[in-house]
Design a protein that fits this description.
3-oxoacyl-[acyl-carrier-protein] reductase (NADPH) activity; Rossmann fold; 15% strand; alpha/beta; 8 helices; EC 1.1.1.100; 246 residues; NAD binding; 7-stranded parallel β-sheet
Length: 246
């Protein structure tokens, strides 16, 4: 119970990596507040969190709506008394070769993946800096580290998250607020399971550990960075990819 009596906010927590992070942090003792755009998808996550014996709260909210996210953050702090952990997980993809990429697809990905992190973190940081403690965990990607053809918008957004992480780590360190990023590799999710066998085999061939990660593997990394076990770690990018990009 490394996170006993802590309060965590997770964006995009209704499925996949976000849901796994919510449940893992709950198992570590944290009360969980999570956001998403699908109330129905939130129901099983709420049940799983409550089975861990902690409080669970869901807010229907889009990270691109700065005013709404400020409302959520302030309500969390007022209702639960603190905000100790923030996991910026919400994200989307709109893949296309760059020469054919529509401006709307570029803007949508940047607005959700990068501007969304700005919106939520700015509101949260005001609380954490005042209480002089906190851990902010930004979910980036190996695509943000190494790039990938057909994902220029996604790569730019995830690389931007890494730069933002390092800048904020330096700004917030004197108030004991740590800021780190996780860069997942190939993760077994609903989306990746729909890939053709040929594409999956090609991806697997690039991974030295020779298997795909589960969302729980990213959740384990998040639990570590959220806890006091990582109290002397800030401004870092923890790559969880089975050795794919080493």
């Amino acid at each position: 119970m490394r996170l006993d009596n802590k309060v965590a906010l997770v964006t995009g927590g209704t499925r996949g990596i976000g849901a796994a992070i919510c449940i893992r942090l709950a198992r570590e003792g944290a009360s969980i507040v999570f956001t998403g755009r699908d109330i129905r998808a939130a129901t099983p996550v709420i049940s799983a969190i409550k089975e861990c014996g902690v409080d669970a709260f869901f807010h229907k909210a889009d990270v691109t709506d700065k005013e709404r996210m400020e409302e959520v953050v302030n309500e969390v702090a007022k209702q639960l008394g603190s905000l100790d952990i923030l996991v910026n997980n919400a994200g989307i993809t709109r893949d296309s070769l760059f020469i054919r990429m529509k401006e709307d697809d570029w803007n949508a990905v940047i607005n959700t993946n990068l501007n969304g992190v700005f919106n939520v973190t700015q509101a949260t940081a005001k609380i954490m800096l005042k209480q002089r403690s906190g851990s902010i965990i930004n979910i980036s990607s190996v695509i943000g580290v190494a790039g990938n053809a057909g994902q220029a918008n996604y790569a730019a957004s995830k690389a931007g998250i890494i730069g933002l992480t390092k800048a904020l780590a330096k700004e917030f360190a004197t108030r004991h607020v740590r800021v780190n990023a996780i860069a997942p590799g190939f993760i077994e999710t609903e989306m990746t399971k729909k890939l053709p066998d040929e594409a999956r085999e090609k991806a697997l061939a690039q991974i030295p550990l020779n298997f795909f990660a589960e969302p729980s593997d990213i959740a384990s990394a998040a639990a570590f960075l959220a806890s006091e076990d990582s109290r002397y770690i800030t401004g870092q990018v923890l790559v969880v990819d089975g050795g794919m990009k080493m």
